[in-house]
């Protein structure tokens, strides 16, 4: 019921109504931002991902899962709250060896799992949309020692906004394919506050990058953060 009531379910419905879902070729690059080609690729998760166990929290249509499975020979599971998105991802990429998709809440999946992962990542996915004081410690438990976490979130200073001064979520909006907007709750932290939450979860910061689309705005659009479990 939660998934069906969410803007993400509406987003998936509108995408599904736009046309048939067909098998796709795996993308040639892993993307961390809304515009292609910005920032690093998959190397932020590790230079050798062959046969490594990787988890995406909020996989959407599965493009990054497909890239990692097809081009980096990783064994990747994509988790998404919306079952329709998981079905779309499976229709796109379910034939790829090493790619799998599961419907479920990111936090619940982590809490129920007993598997250890070499890398966990989120691209405008669960991180930032689930309480970080709950989600980040759950991620740390599921990472192997030395395992990598990387995530991208909307930059807290995008379009002239300002980062949160507390640890509470803010009201934000998601733009649907039909260009309407629906409200969501999002944690809008700067790098310093994210670092504090990572440290409390037992994760050490390794990288912070601000990504911007030079054709759209003078403000940074994406905050990309990476950390490692000691």
Automatic annotation (TrEMBL):
<dbReference type="Pfam" id="PF13649">
    <property type="entry name" value="Methyltransf_25"/>
</dbReference>
<protein>
    <submittedName>
        <fullName>SAM-dependent methyltransferase</fullName>
    </submittedName>
</protein>
<dbReference type="InterPro" id="IPR041698">
    <property type="entry name" value="Methyltransf_25"/>
</dbReference>
<dbReference type="GO" id="GO:0032259">
    <property type="term" value="P:methylation"/>
</dbReference>
<dbReference type="GO" id="GO:0008168">
    <property type="term" value="F:methyltransferase activity"/>
</dbReference>
<keyword id="KW-0808">Transferase</keyword>
<keyword id="KW-0949">S-adenosyl-L-methionine</keyword>
<feature type="domain" description="Methyltransferase">
    <location>
        <begin position="54"/>
        <end position="147"/>
    </location>
</feature>
<keyword id="KW-0489">Methyltransferase</keyword>
<dbReference type="InterPro" id="IPR029063">
    <property type="entry name" value="SAM-dependent_MTases_sf"/>
</dbReference>
């Amino acid at each position: 019921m939660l998934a069906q009531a969410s803007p993400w379910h509406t987003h998936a419905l509108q995408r599904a109504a736009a046309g048939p879902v067909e098998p796709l070729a795996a993308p040639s690059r892993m993307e961390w931002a809304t515009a292609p080609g910005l920032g690093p690729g998959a190397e932020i998760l590790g230079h050798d991902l062959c046969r490594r166990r990787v988890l995406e929290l909020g996989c959407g249509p599965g493009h990054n899962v497909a890239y990692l499975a097809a081009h980096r020979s990783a064994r990747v599971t994509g988790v998404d709250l919306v079952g329709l998105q998981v079905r779309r991802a499976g229709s796109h990429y379910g034939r790829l060896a090493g790619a799998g998709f599961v419907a479920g809440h990111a936090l619940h999946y982590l809490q129920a799992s007993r598997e250890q992962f070499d890398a966990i990542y989120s691209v405008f996915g669960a991180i930032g949309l689930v309480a970080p004081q709950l989600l980040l410690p759950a991620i740390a438990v599921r990472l192997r020692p030395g395992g990598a976490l990387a995530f991208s979130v909307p930059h807290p200073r995008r379009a002239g906004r300002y980062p949160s001064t507390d640890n509470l979520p803010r009201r934000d909006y998601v733009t649907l394919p039909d260009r309407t907007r629906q409200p969501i709750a999002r944690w809008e932290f700067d790098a310093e506050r994210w670092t504090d939450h990572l440290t409390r979860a037992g994760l050490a910061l390794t990288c912070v990058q601000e990504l911007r689309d030079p054709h759209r705005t003078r403000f940074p659009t994406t905050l990309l953060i990476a950390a490692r479990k000691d």
